[in-house]
Amino acid sequence: MTDTILKVENLYKSFDKKEILKDIDFSIEKGQVVALLGPSGSGKSTLLRCLNGLENIDSGSIFFEGENVDLKEKTWEKLRPEIGMVFQSYDLFPNKTVLENLLIGPVKVQKRNKSDVERNALKWLERVGLKDKSDSYPNQLSGGQKQRVAIVRSLCMEPKLMLFDEVTASLDPEMVKEVLELILELAKTDKTLLIVTHEMSFAHKVSDRVIFMADGEIIESSSTSKFFKNPKTQRAQDFLQSLDYINL
Ligand SMILES: Nc1ncnc2c1ncn2[C@@H]1O[C@H](COP(=O)(O)OP(=O)(O)OP(=O)(O)O)[C@@H](O)[C@H]1O
């Protein structure tokens, strides 16, 4: 039996009267890992931002665990901690140590017990090989280390759904692997992840399902193996070819 965590219906979003997202319909089941793929400018980041309440939608509905998310009712304030988002830029507080960065959300915002949160945070840091950096400041870390801290920061909020928006896009190539490996590890647990990435081999490896967007619309939604082996639409075929993606 499946258990839907997120359901989006007929979502529309425009900027300056230009439609950016059109009739977006999809759902994500608990524990699923979904790759959101598509050419640059197709609306992937805008969609993630709408799902996290960072952008208002023009029309349509978003249901989180069956509850209709209504901006006017301020449902987002309650739901935002349930949906973690990791961005391309790590956005760590520069004047706080790694550990302090990890504690702010759970302790200050979620009002959770500090020593419990700290224990959990240190456990995560150990798991990602950064326990010795807990007292370091962000500017003492490499880009890959900062991004792993940003992912751990989101994990410390214990979100039910995590959104990743091109989290390796600003990293030097040698640091991409360590971040992707962490997400691959998370994908093997029961976490529910929606991942925007331009790294096709990673998308292939990490996800159960692909949602392919172009020009603000969902063009294709299928299992990952089907999408990469035999994309249904010409748009998706062209997209994969333009990236020289070779299915090995
Ligand atoms: N705040 C904004 N104001 C006006 N236009 C915007 C805004 N944010 C995004 N857009 C436009 O919306 C379209 C979709 O952008 P978006 O960043 O969502 O695409 P994307 O698929 O994530 O692209 P990329 O893969 O390059 O990150 C683009 O044409 C972009 O210029």
TrEMBL record:
UniProt xrefs under InterPro entries: AAA+_ATPase, ABC_ATPase_HisP-typ, ABC_transporter-like_ATP-bd, ABC_transporter-like_CS, MetN_ABC_transporter-like, P-loop_NTPase
Pfam families to which the protein is assigned, alphabetical: ABC_tran
Molecular function terms from GO: ABC-type amino acid transporter activity; ATP binding; ATP hydrolysis activity
Domain ABC transporter: 6-240
SMART domains to which the protein is assigned, alphabetical: AAA
Keywords for the protein's UniProt record, in alphabetical order: ATP-binding, Nucleotide-binding, Transport
Family the UniProt entry places it in: Belongs to the ABC transporter superfamily.
PANTHER family the UniProt entry points to: AMINO ACID IMPORT ATP-BINDING PROTEIN, PHOSPHONATES IMPORT ATP-BINDING PROTEIN PHNC
Protein name (database record): Glutamine ABC transporter ATP-binding protein
Organism: Floricoccus tropicus
Organism placement in taxonomy: Bacteria, Bacillati, Bacillota, Bacilli, Lactobacillales
